[in-house]
Recover the amino acids of this structure.
């Protein structure tokens, strides 16, 4: 099991309709892609970081993760929204230790 | 519910006994602190980041989080191990959107 996470900050004003649209329509699209499980949308609330949101999702294995990455709906979302609406982001992926 | 996470890289050599000790004894101590739930230890596996591990835990509310932060076992772990064995870290805390 792999937990794929991305913390990000949007170019939109906090609380704006554009922010809300990104945070609701993005997940609607992405969580429907085959292999995606436990998709969550979070606010980042630590004052030690200026990231404001996080999308996170789980994949059973690397193959499912790769299929998501290559899926047209994912690629389209990145091209049409992510690249223009996200100001800064960080991807972290986790597997259980050890 | 607040998910408190910290991604980090140790000063120890990968696969060393010192690394293993930090990753097993730290969680043993921290997960026993009152208010801590769902404590996880993960490897960070995205090649897009050089953080190598993550501790994550949940708290019911800000009060439980603050009590953990102030707990002597947490403060002792930070002073005795974290400050000397962690090379770099990032804290991110999450609550469900909206």
């Amino acid at each position: 099991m792999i937990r794929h996470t991305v913390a990000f900050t949007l170019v939109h004003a906090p609380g704006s309709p554009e922010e809300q649209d990104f945070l609701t329509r993005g997940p609607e699209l992405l969580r429907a892609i085959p292999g995606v499980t436990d998709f969550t949308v979070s606010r980042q609330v630590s004052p030690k970081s200026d990231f404001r949101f996080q999308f996170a999702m789980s994949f059973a294995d690397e193959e499912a993760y790769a299929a998501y990455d290559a899926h047209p709906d994912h690629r389209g979302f990145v091209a049409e929204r992510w690249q223009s609406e996200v100001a800064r982001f960080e991807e972290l992926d986790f597997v259980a230790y050890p």
Q: What stands out?
A: Residues 17-30 of chain A form the longest helix (14 residues). Helices of chain A lie at 17-30, 62-70, 72-85. Chain A has one domain: 2-94. The radius of gyration of chain A is 13 Å.
